[in-house]
Every structure is written in structure tokens, then in C-alpha cells.
Design goal:
Bound molecules: nicotinamide-adenine-dinucleotide, 3-isopropylmalic acid, magnesium ion
Family: Belongs to the isocitrate and isopropylmalate dehydrogenases family. LeuB type 1 subfamily.
Number of domains: 2
Number of strands: 12
Keywords: Amino-acid biosynthesis, Branched-chain amino acid biosynthesis, Cytoplasm, Leucine biosynthesis, Magnesium, Manganese, Metal-binding, NAD, Oxidoreductase
Radius of gyration: 20 Å
Helix content: 40-55%
EC number: 1.1.1.85
CATH topology of the largest domain: Isopropylmalate Dehydrogenase
Number of helices: 14
Protein name: 3-isopropylmalate dehydrogenase
Pfam family, one: Iso_dh
Order of helices and strands: EHEHHEHHEHEEEHEHEHEHEEHHHH
Length: 372
């Protein structure tokens, strides 16, 4: 077995970011203990907390540390004092966008799974969502997020631009992923209205013959939003531009049962970044109610990125154990909820002990109390 030594930069951020990051670190440390790796974690400022202490949402030293890391783990950024002040010139979200752009993280991969044991927790009907399993490839460094923007007293604009290269590079990743899954790729766009969407269609149509085993279909984003809820099993790999991907992936989290379950990996050519898709959920800060599973599964995606499949599988199995045993935060278990820290400890315990099947009641109690 190869023993790995990895340096992970952690950007806990704001709101529940630090709480969920702590649990992801706990689980990664359990992986290191069980499999004999050495992971070191170094925390840096980003977001509203960075503005408070340095004036910048992405201090130079944070960016520098990320460049030299083996991977970056991000919690979430954002604070109501900026959300509720449209006139603020410096904002936490600028740090996140600048980080994505500077690290060239052009592809954001967001897996969506309808876990059998959670089917009853989704507000959607079981028979609609059972078996749903898709990967959303969201373009992350282009489009309306990064186009020229401006405003006068009476008017504002945000330009949406894409070039062929930006579409081509993520399209290849999405086709490759589809080729390793169920061989279906759906491009979601608004090609009936937007010029940028027509370029996406043209580029994807041009690439498709290179992947003859992958069936491609095209959906307008308004229809896609409906199809996602109506029949999510039809999707295997969904490829889409930046803003559509942002919106559709939050929508897709309803299939899983909670926004607190969806992880992501952002990849480019420098260093990869792993983060839950949710935000800083400021209403939950410090209450111990945030679901840490999205952050923990982002850690599992990091392990896969390191080539540690057995280790990633151990984390995913441990998460399944928590789900099966209802060791869940209140948004998924209103009757006897567990805290953020307890869910993390239980998952770390399952990783450490290699508890594969449904553990006994006493194991749950030991798991909750041993690793803090
Ligand atoms: N990548 C990021 O850092 C990121 C992503 C989205 C939003 N944000 C920022 O977060 C702040 C709040 O935004 P928002 O309220 O629109 O989105 P949010 O994702 O923070 O929360 C939306 C809702 O999702 C649920 N939720 C989110 N995370 C959860 C978790 N871990 N466990 C259980 N439930 C969870 C809650 O019901 C919450 O009210 C804003 O400042 C926004 O800009 C940051
Ligand atoms: C906070 C915001 C800039 C961000 C985005 O829109 O990309 C978030 O919603 C996300 O999904 O990571
Ligand atoms: Mg989002």
C-alpha cells in the first residue's frame, strides 16, 4: 500500500463553513490513521472573515498557500451584512470567484444521488427519485459571473461571454465521465435565445463524434429545471454553463433530500478544490445543526482525486452507515436529531473501525462518544 503525504489548505470561511470543515478534517484524519497516510491541514482566511481582518476577501497569502497545496478544502463564505447591502464594494463572494479564476478551476463536478435510505426524507415522491444518480458538470470560470459588469444610477449590466476553448475543455471532461458511467450526456442551455448557448451547442456537437459510445441530448434550461424534478433518472451527466449549473444543482439537492448532502470537486490545471455546494447558512451558525455530510463527501472526492479509491469508498460507506442508522442532523431527522459534531464523529468512527454493515446500537454510542 502506498503511503501518501499530503498538504491540504483549509479555507473554513464564514457561517457554518468552519463547523462543517472541522468534521471533514476529522474524517480525513480517521482515513489517515486507518490507512497510514499523513495529511497536514493548514487553515487560511477567505470570505467575510478575511475582509474583517485584512480588508480583502482573498488575501495574497491565502492564494499563495493554495498554489502550493496538494488540494484545497473550502467550507463556505458569505455573510448577511453583505447580502443585505447591495452597495458594498468589497464582498466575500468576490474572494471565491477570484480564487476559482486564479486557480483555473474551470470544471465544477457536483454528484447528485438519491440514497435509498433517504427516499422518504425527500419532499419528492419515492417512485420519481429512486435510483437517480447524476453528475452535474458546471463550467466555473466563465459566463455571466466573469463578464464585464457595470452600473449607473439608472442601469446595470452583466455580460455573458464564452469562447470555444472554455467550452471545449469542460465538454471533454464531461464526455469522458459519461463514457465511464451510463454513456449519456445532456447539454443544458438556452440556445433558443442566447448566442452563448448556440456556441455551446455548436462546440458540443463538434466534439460528440469523438465519443461515439456517448448519446448526447440537448435541453433548454427551463425544461431541464422541470425534468430534473419530474424524472431525474433520465440524467447521467449533465453539462452546463456557470449560472445554470449553480441554480440546477441547488434544485437537484432536493432529490437527495438536503442541500447539506451535496459535495463538489473543482478541477483545473493547478490544484483542485473541494467544497460542499451549499453556502454559509448564517441562520445555523454555532447551533450545531448544519449537516456536515456535504463537506465530508467533498473530502471523499479529494481522496479519489489523490487516487485513494479504497479510502474514498471507506468514507462513502461510513456516510451510508450514518444515513442507515439515522445519525442525521435535524433537517433530515426532526424526531431525534444529532449535532454536526456527532454526525462527523460517528462517520469518523465508522471509517476508523471499518464498520461496514449496519452497526449495533452500542457501536453508535461508542462512535458518538469516542472521536471528538
Ligand atoms: N460556495 C459558497 O461558499 C457559497 C454557496 C452558496 C451561497 N453562499 C453564500 O452563503 C450565504 C447564504 O446563502 P443562502 O442562504 O442563499 O444559501 P445556503 O446554501 O447558505 O442556505 C440555503 C438553505 O439551505 C439549507 N442548508 C444549506 N446548507 C446546509 C447544511 N449544511 N445543512 C443543512 N441545511 C443546509 C438551509 O435550509 C438554508 O437555509 C450567502 O452569503 C451566499 O452568498 C456561499
Ligand atoms: C457564493 C456564490 C458566488 C457561489 C456561486 O454562485 O458559484 C455559490 O452559489 C456556489 O454554488 O458555490
Ligand atoms: Mg450555488
Amino acid at each position: 500500500m502506498d503511503i501518501l503525504n499530503k498538504k491540504i489548505i483549509v479555507l473554513p470561511g464564514d457561517g457554518i463553513g468552519p463547523e462543517v470543515c472541522e468534521e471533514a478534517i476529522k474524517v480525513l484524519e480517521a482515513v489517515a490513521d486507518r490507512f497510514g497516510h499523513r495529511f497536514t491541514f493548514e487553515k487560511h482566511l477567505m470570505g467575510a472573515c478575511a475582509i474583517d481582518s485584512t480588508g480583502s476577501p482573498l488575501p495574497e497569502e491565502t492564494l499563495e498557500a493554495c498554489y502550493y497545496a496538494d488540494a484545497v478544502l473550502l467550507g463556505a463564505i458569505g455573510d448577511p451584512k453583505y447580502d443585505n447591502n447591495p452597495a458594498a464594494k468589497v464582498r466575500p463572494e468576490q474572494g471565491l470567484l477570484q480564487l476559482r479564476k486564479s486557480l483555473g478551476l474551470y470544471a465544477n463536478i457536483r454528484p447528485v444521488t438519491a440514497y435509498d435510505v433517504l427516499l422518504d426524507h425527500s419532499p419528492l415522491k419515492n417512485d420519481r427519485i429512486a435510483g437517480a444518480d447524476m453528475l452535474i458538470f458546471r463550467e466555473l470560470t466563465g459566463g455571466i459571473y466573469f463578464g464585464e459588469k457595470g452600473r449607473t444610477a439608472a442601469e446595470a449590466y452583466d455580460h455573458c461571454t464564452y469562447n470555444r476553448e472554455e467550452i471545449t475543455r469542460i465538454a471533454h471532461l464531461a464526455f469522458q465521465a459519461a463514457g465511464n458511467r451510463r454513456n449519456k450526456l445532456t447539454l443544458v442551455d438556452k440556445a433558443n435565445v442566447l448566442e452563448t448557448s448556440r456556441l455551446w451547442r455548436e462546440v458540443v456537437q463538434g466534439i460528440a463524434p469523438e465519443y461515439p459510445s456517448v448519446a448526447v441530448d440537448y435541453l433548454f434550461v427551463d425544461n431541464a429545471a422541470m425534468q430534473l424534478i419530474l424524472n431525474p433518472r433520465q440524467f447521467d451527466v449533465m453539462l452546463t454553463e456557470n449560472m445554470f449549473g449553480d441554480i440546477l444543482s441547488d434544485e437537484a439537492s432536493v432529490i437527495a433530500g438536503s442541500l447539506g448532502l451535496l459535495p463538489s470537486a473543482s478541477v483545473g490545471n493547478i490544484v483542485s478544490l473541494f467544497e460542499p455546494i451549499h453556502g454559509s447558512y448564517p441562520q445555523a451558525k454555532g447551533k450545531g445543526i448544519a449537516n456536515p455530510i456535504a463537506a465530508i463527501l467533498s473530502g471523499a472526492m479529494m481522496l479519489e482525486h489523490f487516487g485513494l479509491q479504497a479510502e474514498a469508498d471507506a468514507v462513502k460507506e461510513a456516510v451510508q452507515n450514518a444515513l442507515r442508522n439515522e445519525v442525521l442532523t435535524p433537517e433530515l431527522n426532526a424526531v431525534s436529531p444529532y449535532t454536526t459534531e456527532q454526525v462527523g464523529s460517528f462517520i469518523a468512527y465508522c471509517v476508523l473501525e471499518g464498520v461496514g454493515s449496519v452497526p449495533q446500537k452500542e457501536n453508535i454510542e461508542v462512535g458518538l462518544s469516542t472521536i471528538i
